[in-house]
Amino acid sequence: GSLVGVFALQGDVAEHVRVLTALGARVRPVRSAADVAGLDGLVIPGGESSVMDKLSRLLGVASAVRQAIREGLPVYGTCAGMIMLAETIANPIAGQQSFGGLDITVQRNAFGGQVESFETALEVPEVSGDPVHAVFIRAPAVLRAGPDVQVLASVPTSRLESERPAEAGPVPVAVLQESLLATSFHPEVTGDWSFHRYFLEHVIR
Ligand code: GLN
To answer: Which of 41, 118, 133, 181 is 20–30 Å from 173 (CA)?
Structure first.
């Protein structure tokens, strides 16, 4: 199987490790720049993006991940991981940076706080023949997606906490740009492994 790193400074690392291992990948926790070398792919978990950002810069792993993304490393980011991949964060916590690479603008906590978390079944024909069970927890929304970004799934505008013109259309919650995959939601906590399988089989090649 592929050697897949799980970014392991903060967040729901164990859940991703469990799913990837069950799907036959070899998994390496990534905490330092050295851990990034030789990976076939990397997963960035859900958690708190501002904390991931701070720790990753403190520990010197941020620049290694940025470099690897530039060189085409396949990366899958869930929730906070999506925020870390976004080129632009609309509402960063003071000085918050992302790794970037994925040409999207995200809004953190766009669907409301912890109590507004929700679950839904998403049609994602590119990824699964069956609806994908998606859990949103203080999830980010994609406000803008660049021309090279493929939208894999969206939810109705009415899910958003803040007003958004209806003509802006549904809100993307799963996107793909070449080797970068990101979801606003957490497949690692649902038992629905279709996104991990898609990442291993179609994004890592
Ligand atoms: N709101 C969190 C952040 O800004 C993301 C929440 C999550 O990963 N479940 O990073």
So the answer is: 41
